[in-house]
Amino acid sequence: MNRILLIAQREFMAYARTVGFWLSLLAFPMFAVLGGALPILMQTSQPVRQVVLIEEGPAASGLAAAVRDSFARDRERRLENRREAQEAAEKAAGSAGGTAASEALNRISGPTMQFVDVPSDLATTPSGEPREALARRYLGDEVPEAQQLDAVVFLTRGEEAPSARVWTRRATDDAVEDVVRAALRDAHRRDVFQTAGIDPTVVSEMEKFRPEITALSPQSASGGEVSFRDRLPGIVGLASGFLLWSLVITGASILLNSVMEEKSNKILEVLLSSASSTEMMTGKVLGVAMLTGTVMLVWGGIGAFGLLTTFPQTAVDIGSVLLDGGLIFYFLAYAVGGYLMYAVLFAAIGAFCETPRDAQTLMGPIMMILVVPILVMQMALQTPDAAIVRILSWVPFFTPFLMSARAPSEPPMFEIIGTMVGMFAFALLMIWLAGRAFRAGALSDVKLSWKSFASAMLGRS
Amino acid sequence: MTAALTLESVSKRYGDFQAVRDLSFQVEKGQICGFLGPNGAGKTSTLRMILGLQPATTGRIEILGADDGRKVRDRIGFLPEERGLYKKMTPIDAIAFFGALKGLPQAEGRKRARDLLEQQGLGAARNKKMKELSKGMAQKVQLIASVVHRPEFVILDEPFSGLDPVNQQGLEAMIRGLAADGATVLFSTHVMQHAERLCDKVVLLARGRKAFEGTVTEARATSPRLLELEGEISTAAVAALPGVSAVEHTGGDEVGVRILKATLAPGAGGQEALKAAFLGGLDVRRFELREPSLHDAFIGLTGDHPDQDTSTKALEAAQ
Lengths: 461, 319
Known about the structure:
The structure holds two protein chains of two kinds.
Chain A: H1 2-16, H2 19-45, E1 49-55, H3 63-108, E2 113-115, H4 120-124, H5 129-139, E3 151-157, E4 162-168, H6 175-195, H7 200-208, H8 228-264, H9 268-274, H10 277-310, H11 312-323, H12 327-350, H13 356-382, H14 387-393, H15 399-406, H16 413-442, H17 450-457
Parallel strand pairs in A: 1-2, 1-3
Antiparallel strand pairs in A: 3-4
Chain B: E1 3-14, E2 17-28, E3 32-36, H1 43-51, E4 58-63, E5 76-79, H2 91-101, H3 106-119, H4 135-147, E6 153-157, H5 165-180, E7 184-189, H6 192-198, E8 201-206, E9 209-214, H7 216-221, E10 226-232, H8 235-239, E11 244-252, E12 258-264, H9 271-279, E13 283-290, H10 294-302, H11 312-318
Parallel strand pairs in B: 3-7, 3-8, 5-6, 6-7
Antiparallel strand pairs in B: 1-2, 1-4, 8-9, 10-12, 10-13, 11-12
C-alpha cells in the first residue's frame, strides 16, 4: 500500500509542481468566461455605423422609408426577444440573475447603425459617376472625421423589383447590406401583395404575428406546463456525460504520456524491480485520479461560485437535481468505472511506447470508438430510452458516458444495476489484462502492434 | 558458506528464441560474482528472472531464501543496463524516492542520499535537476539509488558501460565497499578486466549456456599458458621445444628477427622450454611467459569473443 501511495504521490507532484498545470487549471474557467463575454465585447466594441440612404429617381420613392421601417421593426423584435430572455432569466435565477442577464442583453442588443441626413452636396449632385465619386470621398479619410460616413446606399426601383448599390467604408462589412436586402425584400413582398389586392395592414399584421406556445408534459413537476426546472436534469445529465468524457480522456492521456516518458527514460525497469506491476499501475492511476480530481474540484468550485453569484436559483436547482435520488453518486460511480477502464488501457499502451507516434497504431482506432458516445449522448438528451441508446449503454466502454447522460431520466433499475455491474466487472478484467500487458511492455523492445499488445495481454509474450 | 543465490536448470524462451538454456550456478553470501558474456548471451534475461521481473520458462531460482525475487525485492538492489531517472527530479529526491519504494523512511533516505552523494563527489549537484547532470554523474546517482536501502543482494547489469576510466575505478571501489559491508554482488559485464580485478567468482555465459563457473584463477587455468619469443628463430625450432603444443608467428620479419607465440600444453611450465632453447643454441633475444587472461579463458571456453554481439538481433542485422 505504501508503494502505491508513494507512486501516486510522485505522479501527482510531478504535474502539480509545474507552472503549466496551474496555468491550464485556471485557463479553462478563464476562457469559459471570456467565451461568454466575447460576443458582448465584440458587440459593444462595434461602432454605430453612420448610414445615408439616397433614393435615385421618383420610382425609388418610399424605399428609404421602407429601409428605416424594416430596421426599426427588426430592432423592436430584438428588444422583444430581450424582454423575454430577461423574464426567463429572472424566472430561472431570481432577480439578481435577471438583472445580470438584462445588463448583458442590453449590451448585445444596442443599435448597430444610425441613418443620418444626406449631405447637401451628395443630395444635389446628379446621379452617375460624379455622385459615386463623391460618395467614395465621404467613405474615405479625405473629409473631416465628423462628416465621414460608413455606408452610402443608392436605392432604385426597376420595372421588376427594387434594388440597391451599397457603398461601405470597409469591404468586409456587410451589416448594412444585410439590412438593406431584408428591407427591400419586405418592400417588394408588400408591393406584390398590394398588386394582388391584399390590404397592406393585413400584411403588416401577419408579419407581426408571433405564436404563443406552451410546452406541456405529464412528467413535468406541475403535471402540466414544462418549466426550465423540468428540463434541467436532462441538461445536467448531458453536461455530466460530456464532462466525464473529457475528464476520463484527459486523465487517461496524462497517464499514457507519463508511462511513455518513463519508458523512454528507462525508468520502468527500475520501478518494476522496486514494486509490482499492479502496484505501479495502481499508484499511477491513483496519482492521475488525484490530479483530475483536483481539476474537477477547482473547476467545480469556480463554476459553483460563478453560478451562485450570477444565477443563484439555477445553482440551487442544479444542486437539487444532483442530490435528488443520489444522482451525484451515480456520476461518481460512472466516473470511477470509466476512468479505471480507460486509464489502465492507456497505461498498458504507454508501456510499449517511447513516443506518441509509437502509440498511434492503437490510439487511432480507440479514439474513433470514443467518438460514438459523444454522438449518442446528444440523442440521449431528447430520447433517453431510444433503442440504440439503451443497447449501447450496455457496452462497458460506453456505459459511463451514456448512463451519465441517461441517469436523470430515471432509466429502469435493472439497467442501472446491470450496466454498472458490467462496467465494474469489465474494469476489473481490464485491470488484470492491462497489468499483464504493462509488465510485458515495460520490459519489451517489441514494436507496438495489435498483435503484440494482444499477446502481452494474454500473457503470451 | 550459505548460498545467497541458486539457479537450477533455468531456461528462458521468447517465442522461438531460446535466450537461456539449462543454466545452473550458485553465489555465496558476501561474494562478488561476475556474470560474463558477450551481448546477447542471455545475461539480462537471467538477471530479470532472478529479480522476478520475468518468469523462467523452466527451472528453479532461489534468492535470499525466497523462490521468487519479488518476495524479497526490498532486500535487493538493482541497477538495470538501460539507465534512467526522472529528469525533473533532483538527485536527492530521486534517491529518497527509490529508497522509499524499498521501505526506507523518506527522511532517512534523504539523509543517506546526502552522505552518499558527498562520498561520490556529487554534493554540489544534489539539488540540481537530473537533466542538468552529466551521464557519468547521473549513472552514479542511479547506482546510489539502487543501494541506498543497504540491500543484502546487489544486482548490477553492465554497471561499467558508459563510464570513463576514472568513474570506472570509482565504481569498482564502490562495489568492493558493498561487499565489505556484507552485501552479495552479482554484476554482468562483457569487459573481462573489471571481473578480473573484482570478482571472487565468475560465471561465463555464451549463447544462453553456462560455459564456466568458478574463481578467476580457475577460469584462467582452463586456458593454456603462452610463451612469447623474439629473435632469429624458426617456427619449427620453437615447435620442437618441450611442452610447446602450437606456434604462431605474430610479428617481425619472415626472415631475420621474428616474434613467435607458443602455446604450452596443459600442465607444462615455461622453464623447460627456455632451458632447451638455450641448450639448443637458439638465438632468443626476448623470452616472456604470459599467464592467460580471463579474456583468453573466455575465448578458449566459449569460442566467442566477449565483445561480439551474439543476440538474434545482431545475427539478423548481419544477415
